[in-house]
Amino acid sequence: MTKIFARFLKDESGATAIEYGLIAALISVALITGATALGGALDKQFSEISKEIDYTAK
Known about the structure:
- The chain has 58 residues and is mostly helical.
- It has one domain.
- It contains 2 helices and no strands.
- The longest helix is centred in the middle third of the chain and has 45 residues, at 13-57.
- It is rod-shaped, with a radius of gyration of 26 Å.
- The chain starts with a helix and ends with a helix.
- The mean pLDDT is 87.
């Protein structure tokens, strides 16, 4: 019984899959955060450009 338990503790095949899953999740969070920040900055920039165009058109 102790051999089975010791072999179970040494088996790391599932740990690798979990690590890859965590890495993929962290990359996804970073991409979403970056896209959200970039989207907000672009929205602000285009709003300012739109105001300038409206101002100069009058």
